[in-house]
Amino acid sequence: MLSRILAAEGHQVSAATTGSAALRLVESCEPDLILLDVMMPGMDGYQVCATLKANPQFQNIPVIFITGLNDADEEARGLELGAVDYIVKPFNEMIVRLRVRTHLELKRQRDILSRLSHFDGLTSIPNRRAFDERLVQEWKRACRAHDNLVVAMIDIDYFKQYNDTYGHLAGDDCLRRVAGALAKQMQRGSDFVARYGGEEFVCLFSGINQAGLVTMTEQLRVSIAVQQIPHSTSSVARYVTISIGAAFCQPSLDTSAFDLMAHADAQLFTAKHLGRNRVSLALL
Ligand code: GH3
Ligand code: MG
Question: In angstroms, what is the span from residue 156 Cα to ligand 1's centroid?
């Protein structure tokens, strides 16, 4: 009956008849909203809700309990588990439709805000907040999968002089071009680039070997050099160049993402010190 009412509103509805089937369905269709019964055979609605809220991938999907239990304690329990609303059966069609509409609109606005807060306004690539979150996720994933992880810190050479020579607006344009060129080099789903701040960018790679790392970071350096963006006051070339410091590690409980970042940063310092427009690598 709910499916029919909501489909008639133009929503795309998928239904499951048990808690475990619901969890599988959530994985395959990643819904914007979940309507959940409390009393079901096997796993009850509270357990399904708790399982969803414990999973970072699904915890932001709003859940509305729909139940025959008309009791304040039961309602409180559902809300405490993180549900956004509670509708008692027998329900009023109009009320269900309107509440669903409201919660979908709130979800839509939250998604927009989340996207805005994870992208850099100038270059349109992910920002430092997005990178920090991605690094934590990737670190945990790599620990579980015994995969390796690479952080590459990238800094434009003599960018202060670039601004002084061509003006701040041209500097902004240059940042956009560098960001675009770096983003083009991110070829696998797990490759990630963000603007770390100012004229600094950061990349995250996994599942590459040491030879691959050398090639990959050199390609990043070359991808900027070949743009031939004129830079008459650079002491290292006649065009804009970047320096890269990268660190490679096998995440484990003895090391931390912080160490990996610190080593990449130290390598960037080395690359600058050795003359810029080059890559410096550390294998931890
Ligand atoms: P180095 O080769 O050692 O990296 O020298 P540098 O001049 O690139 O480094 P420095 O840290 O001295 O200068 C960075 C400059 O980047 C200074 C700052 O004005 C500029 N910058 C940072 N963010 C922006 C931005 O959003 N737009 C523009 N146009 N410039 C920016
Ligand atoms: Mg710089």
Answer: 8
**pLDDT tens per residue across span 64-81:** 999 888 888 988 999 999
Where do the domains of the chain lie, and which CATH numbers do they carry? Answer: 2-117 (3.40.50.2300), 128-283 (3.30.70.270)
Residue 178, classified by CB atoms within 10 Å of its CB into exposed (0-12), middle (13-18) or buried (19+), is buried
Q: Is the CB of 175 under 6 A from ligand 1?
A: yes
Give the global pTM: 0.79
Exposed, middle or buried: residue 71 (CB in 10 Å: 0-12, 13-18, 19+)? exposed
Q: Whose CA is nearest to atom 22 of ligand 1?
A: 198
- Which tens digits make up the pLDDT trace of 149-176? 999 999 999 999 999 999 999 999 999 9
Nearest-CA neighbor of 190 among 201, 180, 205, 203?
A: 205
Atom of ligand 1 minimally distant from the CA of 169: 29
Q: Is the CB of 75 under 6 A from ligand 1?
A: no
Task: Verify whether residue 93 is a known catalytic residue.
Answer: no
